[in-house]
Design brief:
By secondary structure, the chain is mainly β. The protein contains no helices and 16 strands. A 6-stranded antiparallel sheet has the order 1-6-2-3-4-5, with no helix packed on it. Strands 9-8-7-10-11 form a 5-stranded antiparallel sheet, with no helix packed on it. β10 and β11 form a beta hairpin. The N and C termini lie far apart (52 Å).
C-alpha cells in the first residue's frame, strides 16, 4: 500500500478497479481545511487521462511494475512481435500499446512495463528519437531549400509519412521525434 506522500510521476496503482499511472501531481495545503493532492492519472488500458483529488494520507494499492527491454521483430495480424533482449523470449503485444508504432523498424529496442505479479504487459515506449531513411519525397523548390520553416511531406523506410524541411532528399537519414512525429535533424554520414 502507498499513501499520497509516496506519489511520484510514473507510480502505478489500482483505482476504481483499473490500473492507473500518475502523469502529474500537486500537493496542496490550503489555509483552511485539510491538505490534499491533485493528480492527473492515465488509464493503462485505455490511455484516457482523468483528473482526481485525493485527501492527504489516503492509501492506494500500488502495482509492482518491471521495466524490460524488448527488440521489435515484425508486425503481423496478431500485433507486434517482440523479443526479450535478456532471455530471448518472444511475445506479441497489441499495436495500440505503442504510440506512433508506424515509426518502428525491425531491430528497434523498446521498453515494456510489465505487471510483475501477473506478467501482463501494461505499456510500451519507444525511444524519444529514431533514425530513419527517407524513401520518397518531392524535390524542394529552387531558392526555398535553405529555409527550415518550409516543410514538405516525406515517406520514411517504415512507411510512415512525416513533414521535413525542403532541403531533405531521398536517401537522407533523419532523426524523428517519436513523441510528436516531428523532424529533429539530419544524420551526418
Amino acid at each position: 500500500m502507498a499513501s499520497t506522500s509516496d506519489f511520484k510521476n510514473g507510480l502505478c496503482f489500482k483505482f476504481k478497479g483499473e490500473i492507473y499511472t500518475i502523469k502529474s501531481f500537486l500537493h496542496v495545503k490550503p489555509g483552511k481545511g485539510p491538505a490534499f493532492v491533485r493528480t492527473k492519472l492515465k488509464n493503462i488500458k485505455t490511455g484516457r487521462i482523468i483528473e482526481n483529488t485525493f485527501n492527504s494520507g489516503v492509501k492506494v494499492e500500488d502495482v509492482r511494475v518491471e521495466r524490460r527491454q524488448y527488440q521489435f521483430l515484425y508486425k503481423d495480424d496478431m500485433g507486434l512481435n517482440v523479443m526479450n533482449t535478456e532471455n530471448y523470449e518472444q511475445v506479441s503485444i497489441p499495436v495500440e500499446m505503442v504510440e506512433n508504432a508506424d515509426l518502428m523498424k525491425e531491430g528497434q529496442i523498446i521498453e515494456i512495463n510489465f505487471h510483475a505479479d501477473e506478467e501482463m504487459p501494461l505499456t510500451a515506449e519507444m525511444p524519444e528519437k529514431v533514425e530513419l531513411a527517407v524513401t520518397y519525397t518531392i524535390e524542394g523548390e529552387k531558392g526555398n531549400t535553405a529555409s527550415s520553416t518550409a516543410l514538405k511531406p516525406a515517406t520514411v523506410e517504415t512507411g510512415a509519412e512525416i513533414m521535413v524541411p525542403m532541403f531533405i532528399n531521398e536517401g537522407d537519414v533523419i532523426r524523428v521525434d517519436t513523441r510528436d512525429r516531428t523532424y529533429s535533424d539530419r544524420v551526418k554520414k
